[in-house]
User: Fold Acyl-CoA thioesterase II from Arthrobacter deserti.
Amino acid sequence: MNAPHTQRTQADPTETMLSLLDLSGADGAATDEEIFVGQSQRQPHGRVFGGQVLAQSVLAAIRTVDPDRPIHSMHAYFLRAGNADQPITFGVQRLRDGRSFSARRTHAYQDGVPILSMIASFQAPAPGLDHQEEFPERIPDPETLPSTADLLAKVDHPARSMVPDRPYDIRHVQAPLYAAAKGERVAANAAWMKTKGPLPDDEGLHRAALAFGSDFTLLESVLRQHGVSWVTPGMNVGSLDHAMWWHRPVRVDDWLLYVQHSPSASGARGLSMGKIFNRRRELGATVAQEGMIRMPDDVLARQQ
Assistant:
């Protein structure tokens, strides 16, 4: 029998995310960078959640660009594990402001060293060619699927205590990998997601919040291919880099379908790609991430 969990008052998770994305201006401090400061959400393992620092880095860059130029792409490297008990300093360098495009470089610092390095591009809206990949068929509606909180309430899982604080409601299309890897071994994964509460009508905020949510399930397409769950003893997983392209306006407080696949895994690294659609079947964003995935020898032996 699982031990009873102590009840505690939960802060509203959407409001918590909004407070994390409300960066201060560091009282005007600057070098060749414009400086912002953000807080971190505490985690049981003590490390900063990658999606959080991605979203904060995006928002810091957005704060230095004219609002009529939305962010359309970013490429980031996770350099060091961040400490969730310390604030993060964000330094934004203005690389270029052209007629249509702007480029920014954001470094996220703790203890004087960068934990993440990101370059982002912004563009003024312009007419042009328009096409997209098709929305996948035979996808159940999110209302018919159990939430992560519903699933983890039935098992003793390390993530159980974290779920109430997560700003996103995530609902897996396939059997989730929290406690076991069931079902067909395929390099594919899909989940519906949306924030648990409404967000202001701010396109930049929604794009940053989408970066936050894009880090939750992306490497699961690698794990599913090999029949591995998140509680595999001795497994060590960490994000190495993260790229994102925003194609069309999105609202993260309405359901989004996150369709993922892994084209390759080798050398203790796995690559996963993701496409994010809204309920109108519009492709809002494409994501790519490579992660370090170290497996214990006994698990690797069973893969032969």
User: Anything to note?
Assistant: The first strand starts at residue 34 and ends at 38. Confidence is low (pLDDT under 50) at residues 1-8.
